[in-house]
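Justification of resources, computational component.

The compute hours requested in this renewal are based largely on the per-chain cost of generating structure records like the one below. Each record pairs the submitted sequence with a full structure-token output. That output is archived, and it is also reused by downstream analysis tasks.
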Amino acid sequence: MASSPLGSFRSTLVNLPLGGVVLLPVVPLALGVLALTQHLGSSPGSLATGVLLLGSAIALARVATALIDQRFAHLKQIHQQTEDALRQSEANLLQTQQIAQLGSWELDLVTQSITWSEELFRIFGLNSAHPQLSFDQVMAAIPDGDRERLAVAIDQAIADGSPYEVEHRICRPDGTTRYLLSRGQAKANDSQQIVKLFGTALDISDRKQAELALQESETRFQEMAQTLNQVSYVVSLRSGEYLYISLAYERLWGYSCESLYQDPKSWLKRIYPDDLDYVSETFNQLLTGQQKRIEYRILTANGDVRWVESESLIVKDENGNPLRVVGLADDITHRKQVEATLRDQEAKLRAIGDNLPRGFIYQLVHSPDRGFYYSYISAGIERITGLTPEAVIQNPSLLWDSLIEEDRLMCDQLMQQSLKALSLLETQIRVRNVAEKMQWLTTVAVPRRMEDGSTVWDGVMVDITSLKQAETALRNSEELFRSAFDDAPIGIALISPIGEFLKVNQYLCNLLGYSQKELLELCFQDITHPGDLNQNWQGWPQILEGELSNLEIKKRYISKQGAAIPVLINTSFVHDIDGTPLYCIEHVQDIREQLKVECMKDEFVSIVSHELRTPITSINGSLVLLDSGIYDARPEKARNMLQVAIRNSDRLVRLVDNILSFERLESGKVQLEKEHCQVATLLYQAIDAVQPLADQSGITLALTPLTATLWAAPDGIIQVLTNLLSNAVKFSSQGGTICMNASTERSNAESSDLSVLFTVQDHGRGIPADKLETIFEQFQQVDASDSRRRGGTGLGLSICKNIVEQHGGSIWVESCLGQGSTFFFTVPLGCNER
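The structure output for this chain reads:
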């Protein structure tokens, strides 16, 4: 059955393309009218049929209109979805550009107008509402150097259509600078004319700053590597070549870095021969992947030996395969020298600590888990306490328990305070040694905190027992001094540098009739006789300045009652450590009785002088002639006469002294008072008596002492030794040596009694054999001229012989001319005698 026109229309309507939708409303109506006209034309009588067709056409038009409305609603929905998708796409694009910091642009070369994306506004530091910038404004925001490069690239793109890519800076309105990577592409029209440029601008500021920071870091590394004394190096394990070596290699080794690049093994040739095997073995072990630090010596280009500390490690790839060696080498010669010096100092310190005569050094440690213990104690502790260092280190309580209980408690408190505050530990303690003898020790220790939390005290302990005894003796002495000062039988005063009385004793107060209070308000000038003030002040500046050690003057004090009292004053100043005078000590002796005795003595001298007038008159005459000036023009003659007078005077004095001593010994008027004597003490006292004479002549006195007890008269034995030493000094050459010693021997072969043999040996001119016996007789000398040139009366050896024989001993001499003499004398020990 053939389809009707209406069916065909409906089929056509359904399949209309979207562009023909606008025709649908008019088609049904047109078709209805057309059908009606055709029908009426073919069958003019069928009007009813025509009306029916027209109605159908109208109905069909209504259906078509409904379909058209439905189609438009569908199209509107599609359009809305498309717009939403476009907006979402644009939003995604904007977000993507923001994330990538990438802006897009388009430049119309004809109108010179630029279209920017929103992100490009942000990159340039502008608000998106800001008017579009012109091409010139954009170029003005680019610094000069970058602007020229970008302009050249744009011109090239316009000329040949090639794309470009340029890095450049822009200056934002706020003054900040950003780095951009600009890419551009030209677009031609149908006539192949370039009419547009479009492209992107990527903000690469972060990357650029990172690159600049990396460059700066590399620059700093290079600067640091070139200035550090440490040698830094990188060696490829695949090729064995040096990838990098710092200039410090040239400073340390003395060879160029280029030589190492050319010959990577050349550094081994510069290892000190004794260290080469060790270094080679260690670097072979490095290949196992272990980090190695070694110390070795090298020979520099100029032949010096230097110490080097090298530390290397292996750098591996992601698969664990070794790639290269990276390391540092440092010159540690100074450190090695310091270590050697430190070891030497430690050895010296230990030697000092172990040989401290009256103390020891120690290192005390407190560990939170171990408590207190000693890590080191020198050997001196055994001499003081009897405890060995090893025993105390093993058991610290041995030393702790030896403390007196009272001091142990005090020391424990001080230790806790020092541990808490790291304060200096300084105290005095008492200990009982292994022999139960109490000793005083002083200790000083400095604490330091270690990284592991332990505390170490470096300290020293010194035996101050003798000092404590001396302090006790000093206190007793001070008490005695106060007693002696207050109860002395002479006046004593302490006087300030300006003459004020600072302290006076009772004797002086009684002598002058003042109370202590009254006298302390006065100066010594106030009570000095006016006629003696000038004399008193003459020596005061010299003693005040220390030019005089003491000053002795006679003057008169005026008592409170107005009486003139003659006194003999001895004054000496006490100075501080800087030499500043503090006060003077003045001894005031009442010499009224002494003056009476002097008057009596003058009378006695006038009687005795009558018997000695001849030699004295002769001496006096010589002196008068000298004083008269007769020999002023003849100084040699005057000097000779003066020397003669002096020698005669000395001889006269010695003669009188020796005669009196000899007479008393011979007559028995002087009895030798014997007592127990220490031989060594007698020898030392004799040395002390003659030492000034020996020093004047440059003579050395050598002594070999003897520890023995002798029953003898000490003064007599000392006089014998002094006479023998004095004679030895007189007859020894300048710079010579005199030896004195003592030993014990049997009195004879049959006897068991012991004697002390004293010996005095010189290296002088010697004594002739015929004089060895006679020199011990009265008024005998080896050479008569000795009396004139060297002094002496010829009685000294005779006196020595008398003293020795009164002790039951004997004296003799052995001598060799030109080589010296040795005097011997013996004294029986006589320990059982009383």
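The first helix runs from residue 5 to 14. The mean pLDDT is 80.
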